[in-house]
Every structure is written in C-alpha cells, then in structure tokens.
Amino acid sequence: xxxxxxxxxxxxxxxxxxxxxxxxxxxxxxxxxxxxxxxxxxxxxxxxxxxxxxxxxxxxxxxxxxxxxxxxxxxxxxxxxxxxxxxxxxxxxxxxxxxxxxxxxxxxxxxxxxxxxxxxxxxxxxxxxxxxxxxxxxxxxxxxxxxxxxxxxxxxxxxxxxxxxxxxxxxxxxxxxxxxxxxxxxxxxxxxxxxxxxxxxxxxxxxxxxxxxxxxxxxxxxxxxxxxxxxxxxxxxxxxxxxxxxxxxxxxxxxxxxxxxxxxxxxxxxxxxxxxxxxxxxxxxxxxxxxxxxxxxxxx
Amino acid sequence: xxxxxxxxxxxxxxxxxxxxxxxxxxxxxxxxxxxxxxxxxxxxxxxxxxxxxxxxxxxxxxxxxxxxxxxxxxxxxxxxxxxxxxxxxxxxxxxxxxxxxxxxxxxxxxxxxxxxxxxxxxxxxxxxxxxxxxxxxxxxxxxxxxxxxxxxxxxxxxxxxxxxxxxxxxxxxxxxxxxxxxxxxxxxxxxxxxxxxxxxxxxxxxxxxxxxxxxxxxxxxxxxxxxxxxxxxxxxxxxxxxxxxxxxxxxxxxxxxxxxxxxxxxxxxxxxxxxxxx
Amino acid sequence: xxxxxxxxxxxxxxxxxxxxxxxxxxxxxxxxxxxxxxxxxxxxxxxxxxxxxxxxxxxxxxxxxxxxxxxxxxxxxxxxxxxxxxxxxxxxxxxxxxxxxxxxxxxxxxxxxxxxxxxxxxxxxxxxxxxxxxxxxxxxxxxxxxxxxxxxxxxxxxxxxxxxxxxxxxxxxxxxxxxxxxxxxxxxxxxxxxxxxxxxxxxxxxxxxxxxxxxxxxxxxxxxxxxxxxxxxxxxxxxxxxxxxxxxxxxxxxxxxxxxxxxxxxxxxxxxxxxxxxxxxxxxxxxxxxxxxxxxxxxxxxxxxxxxxxxxxxxxxxxxxxxxxxxxxxxxxxxxxxxxxxxxxxxxxxxxxxxxxxxxxxxxxxxxxxxxxxxxxxxxxxxxxxxxxxxxxxxxxxxxxxxxxxxxxxxxxxxxxxxxxxxxxxxxxxxxxxxxxxx
Lengths: 300, 278, 439
What we know:
The complex is a heterotrimer.
Chain A: H1 2-38, H2 55-62, H3 65-96, H4 103-116, H5 120-129, H6 135-142, H7 154-167, H8 170-182, H9 185-190, H10 198-227, H11 230-235, H12 249-259, H13 263-291
Chain B: H1 2-32, H2 55-62, H3 69-100, H4 106-116, H5 121-134, H6 142-145, H7 153-163, H8 169-176, H9 181-192, H10 194-210, H11 213-218, H12 227-233, H13 243-270
Helix pairs in contact in B: 2-13, 3-7, 3-10, 3-12, 8-9, 10-13
Chain C: H1 2-38, E1 48-55, H2 58-74, E2 78-85, H3 87-99, E3 106-109, H4 111-119, H5 141-144, E4 148-149, E5 152-153, E6 156-157, E7 160-161, E8 163-167, H6 169-174, H7 186-198, H8 209-219, H9 237-253, H10 259-263, H11 272-275, E9 280-284, H12 288-295, E10 300-302, H13 309-312, E11 316-317, E12 320-323, H14 330-342, H15 344-350, H16 360-366, H17 372-386, H18 399-414, H19 420-435
Parallel strand pairs in C: 1-2, 1-3
Antiparallel strand pairs in C: 3-12, 4-5, 6-12, 7-11, 8-9, 8-10
C-alpha cells in the first residue's frame, strides 16, 4: 500500500518535471559534457582537440595575470552591483505598489530602461552620458566636483558598469511587484496589524512574506551578475578597457573562445566559474533556512 | 489626515523626479532619432534636434539591403511568440512538480536545474550548434524555439517560489473535493500564480526579442533575419553608419515590447489579492 | 479568478493567431524565392547551390547581391544563398560553422583571421584553380601572393590597400602648418605635432600599434614575426622603446589624444578629424572614402614617414574570398570568384568598394566611373605600388592574441603606468608565449 503510493507519487512527480528532464538530457547535458572534455584539451574550434590534461586549469592560476584581473573585476562588480540593484528594485517596487492612478505610467517609465537592454543604442547613449561633455560630468561640475575621466580610470569605468546595471533594475522590480501583489491582503487583516503603521506592517507581514521572492531575486541576480557580458562588451568595444578595468569574467572568456580561438581554455574558465557560482549559490540556499519564510511549511 | 494630504504631492514629486532621471537616457535616444545621422554625435549634449527630421524613420523602415524593417519585425514576432508560449506554459507545469509534489530525486533535479544556469553559454554554444546542425535545424527557428518548450530554469525557479507562497490549505481543500494533481495544477495553482505567469511572459518576450546570438548563429537567410540583427545592419565599423536609422528603429522596436508590458502588467497589478482568496 | 485565467488564455490565443497570419505572409515570400530557384532553365547544366558569406556595410550587402543576380543571369543553373552580418557578428557566426564543418562555399576572410582559418585546414588551396577557373593573366604575382601561406594560396586577394596619413588640409592650416613636406620624416612629424598642439589641435588619433610597429620594423630591415611564425622577428627591444616611446611622449605632451578620449569615439562620424580638432588619421587606404564622407571637406593622403618609407611601405590585401575545404562545389565557387574579380560589369557594381582591384584591366575600366575621393585612393595605391616593398608573410596563427597584448601594453604605456623598457620586455615574453605554439 505504502509502496504503491510512493511509486504513484514518483510517477506523477516525474511526469510534471519530465519536460525539464528530457530537455536537460538532450539540449544541455551533451553540450556540457563536451565542454568539460574540451577544458582538458587545446581545442581551437578549427581543428581536432588534443588532450593536454590540467594545463588549462593550472596556467589560469599561475601564469595568466589577466585572468586574475578578470576575476577581481567580476567580484567587485557582483558584490557592489547586486546589493545596490536589489535594494533599489525593492525600494521602487514598494513605492509603486499603490493604487494611485498615475502608478501605471510610473511603472512603465521605471521599467523602460530595462527593455532597451543591451542594444547598441544603449551603449552609445551610456558612453555619451559619461563622456567628457556628458550630462554626468556637467552635473558634477555644477556642484563643484571636477569631471571624472570615466573612460580613463579603471575603477571609474567599472563604476559606470555598475550604474548601468542598477539603472536596468526593472526585472527585479517587476518580480518584487508581482511578489508584493501575491501577498493576500487578508493577511494584514488577520494578523491584526491593519491599523498599525507602515513599518510595523512592512516588517511583520510584507518582508517575511516576500522572503521567497527576495531569495529568488538574490540568487538569480547573483548568477546573472557573474555572467554579465553585454554591458562590458558594448561599453569597452569588446576589449574590457581601460587597462582591463571592465574585463568581466564572461568577456574574457568570450575573447579566449571566439577571438583567440582558445576554446579549451575558455571551457576550463567556464567550469571554474561554475564552481565559484555554485558554491556561492549553495551558501545562499543554506542560509535561506534561517530567513526565508515559506507559507507551505506552515510557519507563521 | 493632514499628513496624508501632504504626503501625496510629496510622493508624486519624488517619484516623478526619479522617473525623469531614469528615463532621461531614453529621451536622449528618442530625440537623437530625429537628428540627422551626422549631427547625432556632434550635437549630443543638446536634447532638441535642430533641424528636426523624420527621414530616419523612413529610411529605417525601408530597412537594410532589400529587407524591410517590417520583415525583421515579423520574423522576430514569430520566434518570440512561439518561444514565449512554450517557455511560460512548460515552466509552470514543471514548477508545480518541484513546488508541490513529493518524489524521489526532487532535490537533485532542482539542483541540476540551478547548475545549468551557472555554466556560461559561450562554451556550450559550439557543441549545441554541432548538434543542431546534425539534426538539420540550421537555417530554421527550431534551435531557438524548441528548447523553450522544455522549460526555462529562470521561470521554473520563479514560479516555484511563487507557488511556495500559496498556503497549502488551498490544495487540501481541493484534494478533499476529489481533484487530482493535474486538476489541482490547472484549476487551483495556475490561476493563483497569474502574476508570475505575466512576469514570465514579459521577460520571455523581451529576452527573445533582444536575443542576438540565437538568430545570428542559426538563421542564415537574410529574409529570416530578426530585429536584433536588423538593427546591427545599419552599423559598420569600416564605413559610414546609418546611426539615425538605427536610433529610429531602436525606438520602433521598443513598441512591441512595451505593448506586451502594458498587456501583461495588468495581471501583475491586479494580483490575486483582489480576487477573493478565502 | 477563473475569469482571469480565461483572459490570459485568450491573450495567448490572440497572439498565436497573430503569429499564424505572420507565418502565412512569410510563407508566401518563401515560395516566391522557391520558384525562382526552380526555373533555372539553363543550358542543361545541373543545378548547383552555393552558400556565400561576407561582412560589411549596407552598401556592400546591396551591391554584392546585385553582382550575384548578375552572375545568375549568366549562369542560370547556379543559385547562391547569401549570409551576411557586420564585422563583429560575422566572426561569431562563422566560428561555430567551422567547428561543425558547415562553412559556406565562398567566404570573405580578412588578413587578421586568415592564418587561423587557412593554417588550421579550413580553407581550400586555390592554386589548382589559378589559370583555369580563375583567370590570373591580369593580376600581378605580388597581389596573388598576398594570400600565400606555406606552399598554398588559400584566399583570393580582392583588393589592395596601402598605408598613409589621411588628413584634412583645412585643419592643418588651422593648426598653423602650411603643408606636409614631401618625403616627411619622423622629425618633421614630431615638430608638426608640437606646433599643432600649440594651436589646440591633435595631430592624429594615434597609430594602431600592430600595424605601424610592423611598418617601423620594416623600415629598419626587421619584421614583427620571424619567418617560421613561431617568434618575434626582431631581437633588439630598443626598437620597441624607440617607436612606442615616441608615440607615448606625444600623448603625454598632449599632442595626441589619450586612450580614454579615443575610447569615447563611437564611429567615423564621431572622429575628431570630422570635428576639426584633429589633423588626420593614420590608416589603410580603403578607409579613406568613409572618412572623407564623414569629414565632408577636401582631404589628402600623405605618405609614410622617412627614413626607410620605401622599405617600410607594402601593399596589403584588403580581404580575401576563400573556398572552404569541405565545399562540394569548389570549381563552381572558383568560377564565381573569377567573375567577381575579372568581370567588368560586375566590377562596375563593386566600384572598388572592397579595395583597389587586383586586375590591371579592371582598374583601368573603373577609372572613369570613380568618385573624386575614390580616384585619390586609386592614385595613392598606384603611387604606393612603385614606392613600396613586398609584403611580409601573412601574420601567423595567434597574431590576434599578440595584437591584444601589444594593445594593452601600449595603453599602459600611454597612461604612464609602465616604462617603455618594461613594456618591450613584457611584450616579448607574452608574444613568444603565444607564438611558440606554432611549431
């Protein structure tokens, strides 16, 4: 009896996730296995790969300064950009989560930057804003600060990238908004904080109820920040300058793979990245037991 | 009460000002599309075009080397709509399995799904290309669209998180009424995660719309090129580029995405809170 | 609640409907081209389909398609399917095709990637076709050998380029200089730069490191790469110090723009020469027309710097057409390349857009049809032919990575972050590290 029940459960469970399992086996597993194999070879896309053992992995950490630079830049970008972006997104989602008539317009306007995305137009626009005569410098000058050479200083250039990522916070905002809307209003009534002030409501109901969504956004933003490629590519004309200041990991990986034809090395880089991001994500998941509140688990 | 009266203007001033900052670059883009190509950069610090011209829209719409911009839009729509339907529906289906069902290996498969997000796409791109070429899919939209029907991890995870915020009492009530798992998914859960479905639809639409790599690799015939490819046709690093047309068509290409946003954001706004959860 | 679900389903269905109509209209155009392919009633030759790929501007796409149409009217049995993109995207598109053995029959290759693709056996040797499918009677040995790698020629040279200083005489006058002296030397150049700087005008936008360092080495009888392509072709790091030290001094003194100023330039239209704040640009002759159009004032081309300009200057293929090794219709592909290079009618459409034609006959035929700025380019290339030395062997595999290293080091040098001596040493070790793989 018990056995047939669990068999049934497994059957139903796998039926539901079968599209993913099948898709994974066909479209992801084989190519991923191939890239793992390439990472131990000198594969150059144009001729057959030769096995070279761990050479790609060792040279990454021993003889490639630029690799270490890209790792450093990426870490900075992630740990600066992700919190800023999430806080800003949550903040905006909160202020837009009202019933004002103008809110539809605001919502669109705030989302607009995120849908012009990584196009060439954005790159032109962004380079213009931060240019020597751009609006940013004009504004800095007007409050008595000297112009910043955004394209000449590696740190300033990285900061420019971070600003771009914060500016395009729309996707996180939208998810927060949807999350906020998913909190049943009855909960506010039921827990008797209806008459209470904003902050009480926020910390007693809104924030705990939103934690699954915060977890989601945190993890996805973390992963996607590590993978960030387009902004760095378009702002530095694909080279990661100035002085490798915007040489994000993915950009360097791309250059190794498709500009220098060193797919073996690029594959090795990818697997190192996978381990780094995987460990970080697992760590976030591990802590989530402490702070994420799931309605399903009945904790209230 | 008095406080409230004061609050609203302050709210609008604040939100409005921030909105202007956010949208300034977009306005710059819009205004540049009305400038002659050769003046876009030399007059980049002034917003108002002088002279104001419409011809960028005309030349842009005519398109590039025999392909009208309309054909780029149609091609993109075809890919985007097929992809979005597949991505959203399959992801919801899979998400229900992960969020609500108990089965052996669930945690492992969930972890596998998360890991697939962490492998940079550039290194699987070549093996994937070889595979699709063996399947004879090169030159068709299949390599871009078909995988979407097997679930998109981002959306699956998103919907899992949403389903987990739904109280389980809902399920129990339905199960007592004799509804099976499929019924539970279709009739109870799906309507409750409409905000997540709408969010996923908006994202999926936009991501496919702006995707450059897929169309670049898999579409060969210029008559099947998409908007993302079409926009880049206006530019060439070796010769004079048609910046004006590129800006104008960038603006035009925003319209479908904005339209979808308008269409679907209502479902996010309305949410489920108003629809009477017991 | 249910109502809402219905609405979503309705919205999805509506979009599916939209899609169906979109597909319908598309299918219509597809079948149209399909019948076109079907009605090749030709002279009994069996139908052949070739794939052809190139990068470039809208104008290039347009006239290339016209050339293909023209070819089709003369060879109704041949259908050519085209694929094109802009330069950056093109290489992304081609690389996976190479990995999958799916390269187009005819593809455009540039000198930077040439060794990579030819050296790794992706391209077919064209020498068997020379004198047969490809008529080479009017093409000089020198031009043909532009694509020589080892014993083979894996790319048909489509046009030749020459290096020079393309400048705006009006800005030069504004900078307080009457004219550029004939046979100008490095000293002339440096003093002109200094004078222009006094008047607040940049002399140029810098010299692209790999191109002009290569030139400089040639003027002193050296090469950037050794003949085997597995190491550098010069031993004395002082040459590096001399060349890049001079350029870095120009940047430091403000006579040439800093790298961050250059990084903000978005395209030709945005070039400082166009804005009149820079005298000119050091670059290849095929870029002259675009620059001239953007500047929209009369421009001139000045020759390279002395001493050793004649030894240093060389004519370089602007780009190649290659046939992929796995092409099943190599002869047909070669015939088309021949048409592209030797047919007068076709070249009246091309009008030298891919570089000054290699065929002497075609060059003459085109002369009356050219725009004034194209005439300038043709004339400068003709002058260069008489005042240059043969080109070095094509850049070896890995050259792109060497360039990247050189570019990064010169950037550091221009920012004053590294001394010229250290940069020279570092370049040697990085470059040899890459090149030693070419055993």
